[in-house]
Amino acid sequence: MKRSMITLVALASLVTTYANAKDIEGVRFAEEVRAGTATLRLNDVGLMRYRYVIKAYVAALYLGDGGRADAILADTAKRLEIEYFYAIKADGFAKATDQGIAANVGPEKVAKLRPQIDKLNALYKDVKPGDRYALTYLPGVGTELALNGTPLGTIEGADFAAAVFAIWLGPNAIDQSLRTQLLGRL
């Protein structure tokens, strides 16, 4: 009886989380997610197009309380979930990470962050359509990379988190349209 009650409560919690979910291109993102002891709420979702035509992936930005557009790269809890429409090799993610960070921070900062960037690049796995990466930053903990809900590793540093999230949310984001969509509610 006790086990049935726990299962029922867990299912009710899951239903509540997805009851207010948001769909984009047939992909559903929960209204809120838990990360450690933090509850992160969906800010908005967006579609990334490759070469303006091909739908590459959809993404969702989650923020802790008090998230603001002018402080999106600050030392505050955040999560970016990305679901892919195409297969991508791990080395493709590593190359894109290097380019995206370099586009948003100077060469000295890239050199300083190189050990953390290399650690993230070593965590990447090949993805197939429908796979979902999540980058979750918690102050004092670091940036966790997870694939389909399975944690792959955590990289410390608020400066590293700012650099990696800048790939999508920085001044020279990989796609300005996606950035605008993700920051939509701010």
Per-chain topology:
Layout: H1 2-19, E1 22-24, E2 27-29, E3 32-35, E4 38-50, E5 54-63, E6 78-84, H2 90-104, H3 107-123, E7 132-138, E8 142-147, E9 150-155, H4 158-169, H5 176-182
Structure description:
With 186 residues, the chain is an alpha+beta fold. It has a single domain (22-182), classed as Chalcone isomerase (3-Layer(bba) Sandwich), CATH 3.50.70. 37% of the residues lie in helices and 32% in strands. It is built from 5 helices and 9 strands; from the N terminus they run αββββββααβββαα. It has a 7-stranded antiparallel beta sheet. β3 (32-35) and β4 (38-50) form a beta hairpin. It is globular and about 40 Å long. The N and C termini lie far apart (45 Å). Residues 1-19 have low confidence and may be disordered.
What is the topology, as strand order, of the major beta sheet?
3-4-5-6-7-8-9
Strand content: 25-35%
| Biggest sheet character | 7 strands, antiparallel
Estimate nothing, just give the exact number of structural domains. 1
Number of strands: 9
- The CATH architecture comes to 3-Layer(bba) Sandwich
Distance between the amino and carboxyl termini: 45 Å
Secondary-structure content class = alpha+beta
Order of helices and strands, N to C? Answer: HEEEEEEHHEEEHH
What's the CATH topology name?
Chalcone isomerase
Helix content: 25-40%
Shape: globular
How much is the average pLDDT?
87
Low-confidence stretches: 1-19
CATH class: Alpha Beta
The radius of gyration computed from the alpha-carbon positions, rounded to a whole number of angstroms, is 17 Å
- By DSSP (H or I, 4+ residues per run), the number of helices equals 5
